[in-house]
Specification:
- The complex is a heterodimer of chains A (254) and B (149).
- By secondary structure, chain A is α+β, with helices and mostly antiparallel strands.
- Chain A contains four helices and eight strands.
- In chain A, strand 7 (101-106) and strand 8 (113-117) form a beta hairpin.
- With 149 residues, chain B is α+β, with helices and mostly antiparallel strands.
- Chain B contains three helices and eight strands, in the order E-H-E-E-E-E-E-E-E-H-H.
- Classes of the chains: A alpha+beta (254), B alpha+beta (149).
- Chain B: Residues 15-108 form the PH domain.
Amino acid sequence: MRLSGEAGETQAPGSPPDPAIAAMKLNERSLAFYATCDAPVDNAGFLYKKGGRHAAYHRRWFVLRGNMLFYFEDAASREPVGVIILEGCTVELVEAAEEFAFAVRFAGTRARTYVLAAESQAAMEGWVKALSRASFDYLRLVVRELEQQLAAVRGGGGMALPQPQSLPSAPAPVPALPLPRRPSALPPKENGCAVWSTEATFRPGPEPPPPPPRRRASAPHGPLDVAPFARLHECYGQEIRALRGQWLSSRVQP
Amino acid sequence: MRYNEKELQALSRQPAEMAAELGMRGPKKGSVLKRRLVKLVVNFLFYFRTDEAEPVGALLLERCRVIREEPGAFSISFIEDPERKYHFECSSEEQCQEWMEALRRASYEFMRRSLIFYRNEIRKVTGKDPLEQFGISEEARFQLSGLQA
């Protein structure tokens, strides 16, 4: 089994560094861009971070984005000093010499606990709340719950709803959904910021084209998976592109 | 950039949304295609040597673009450098399609937008905010205005 090295890990005295031990690769450059991109952050502010078990606190500028907690030397820094990946952690208050302290704790025998301290009670509470709900898992649970709620309020009687914890065994009919009224609210086909797309952005003229009539979307080919929204989005996206093409060509003045 | 590598390694051992052996080629010029076990867990794509328990590396899937390359193959690149591509070769068109769909949905940002979409749709039908039951309706990250960025 290949071991990954870790900063600060000591070698046995007298032994040469093992060339087989290499750190796990990570797309750090992309991470840095994600840390500093223009999208609104989920929380930001100064926190004191304890260097290690017996180390001093350092004041750092923290930025929470998604399930990544970045920390910078200060608020104007272009690149983070580091990041704490927030999956599988718990956030708790701690007894510490420092006021307004809390900890981000990970499971596992040699797992690290990050002790942080805010500058006020309100800030501490805000961070504890934000961090404890920052995981991808948490968000996914909420989204799945909302998917089911939407299916329930749209479907009316007689529609089989998938059970929360298990996958449905047969394809379930997809509830009819009108096209979203605001094209700008549609997530892009690619991951990432909405403004980035190689396709020409939809620019409506004085009169936007009429939306297509309400219809039942065709059932997916397989069981409803965890994000039927994406499939619907694809279907509607194709429809929008086709309609846009028709509309644009009908506007052409020869 | 420092990061909690141990936790990332632990994450790579969690149940995956998708896992398969694919051909993978790194973004550097002259990279060779290698067989890798590729595993999608939350918004990370881990890749392992086929006989090893610890991942060679991971890709955070935020602000990424997944595009079709030649038949049965796709690439992942990132907004800040679209020419720098991680290539993946699948054993079938079907598998390729499946992976592309999954990867496009795998970001936190996509999930956030989905939430905002569903919240709005439910509000339109019921007149009520479904996030209230979770106590998170006031969170800035779930407001419509967040989509403008």
